[in-house]
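Dear colleagues,

As part of the handover before I leave the project, I'm documenting each prediction I ran so the next person doesn't have to rerun anything. This entry is a single chain, and its sequence is reproduced below.
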Amino acid sequence: MGLFNGKKKPKDDWSTMSTVVKTEAKLQSLGEITPSRRAGVIYRNNEENAFQSNLKSELNDVLYMGEGATKTAFEIEDDDRGMRWVVLEDGNFGDLVSSVYTVGNAIGMNGGADNLLAAVFELYFTGTVEDNTYRSGLRTYWIYRYDRKAFYPFVPTGDSEGERDRPTEARLGQDLRKHGLAIEKSLTEWMGLWGIPF
């Protein structure tokens, strides 16, 4: 896994994260993309943080209680790199994005802002975007970095660090920006993230 560095900016994440909803809807209406039912939030766990040490119960309250609650299922998993994931599943992409935002916001607002690394969405291409042709069934991850307040595409080609399709990522970044996704401008900040548990 690449290292994520930097300070969390005070700006709210929703204004940027919500661009994924519009971009996905546009591309799906064109028959170019199919979203997965899964997404995740990755963070450095802090056992001394009361909210994080009781995260399952806290997220049950946050996700399932009150007005606007979704039916998004979630599990908490540790990866082999010492990071913790909240893996979410929902057949409604808008609800999935909303739940991802809710989880990240809850962790951040309860003393964990500096622990948040990224939100990760899994999508599959089914055709072309703009003038570029992507192989049918191409699995991509759209990674949102909390410290950069921006997305970038990640196309792993294997499970080992460094195994990724950078040319496809670069083309995707250009195409997705044209369709409204808030893309990280600096390619050096497009960190690889291997070991995604979905």
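The chain has six helices and eight strands. Residues 1-10 have pLDDT under 50 and may be disordered.

All the best with the project,
I.
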